[in-house]
């Protein structure tokens, strides 16, 4: 085999199997708009090491909820957070019966193993996401290097009940890795 071709194949193999991209949660902000319906017990990030952070969310629904609408929007930081590519609104009860939104399917697949959001409505009692850690290998989408915000607003009977803002950074550094 030609030496140039051999070096090229070796570089391709090394680049494909390197951890050249890093996904890291940087902040989590949760706010309950209706404390009689929903109590947030915990909404925090826990640092595992310098490049790995896990997200924990524990809440309690005090009454059964039958009609849940969720609005997701992704923002990218550029002189403040600006809307970036995706904004969608779904009916969570219908989505859990039959998933229909491609972006929300991706988000749901990333967190379903770490949460108890695995059944259809009605929801009541404890709701949690425990030790959610997203590896860049598990992301089906390619993000440019930067800082992002996934803002979600949860509505119950068309009234804003919960706002969750997850901030993260994504760094793709192929040259220095």
TrEMBL record:
<keyword id="KW-0732">Signal</keyword>
<feature type="signal peptide">
    <location>
        <begin position="1"/>
        <end position="20"/>
    </location>
</feature>
<dbReference type="Pfam" id="PF06477">
    <property type="entry name" value="DUF1091"/>
</dbReference>
<dbReference type="InterPro" id="IPR010512">
    <property type="entry name" value="DUF1091"/>
</dbReference>
<protein>
    <recommendedName>
        <fullName>MD-2-related lipid-recognition domain-containing protein</fullName>
    </recommendedName>
</protein>
């Amino acid at each position: 085999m030609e030496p140039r071709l051999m070096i090229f194949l070796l570089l391709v193999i090394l680049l494909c199997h390197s951890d050249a991209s890093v996904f890291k949660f940087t902040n989590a902000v949760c706010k309950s708009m209706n404390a009689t319906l929903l109590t947030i017990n915990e909404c925090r990030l826990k640092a595992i090491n310098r490049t790995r952070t896990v997200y924990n969310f524990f809440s309690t629904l005090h009454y059964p909820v039958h009609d849940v609408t969720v609005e997701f929007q992704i923002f990218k930081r550029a002189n403040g957070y600006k809307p970036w590519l995706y904004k969608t609104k779904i009916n969570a009860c219908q989505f859990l019966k039959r998933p229909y939104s491609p972006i929300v399917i991706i988000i749901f697949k990333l967190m379903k193993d770490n949460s108890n959001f695995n059944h259809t409505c009605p929801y009541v009692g404890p709701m949690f996401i425990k030790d959610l850690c997203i590896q860049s290998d598990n992301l089906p989408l390619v993000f440019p290097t930067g800082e992002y915000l996934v803002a979600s607003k949860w509505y119950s009977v068309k009234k804003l009940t919960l706002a969750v803002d997850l901030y993260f950074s994504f760094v793709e550094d192929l040259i220095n890795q």
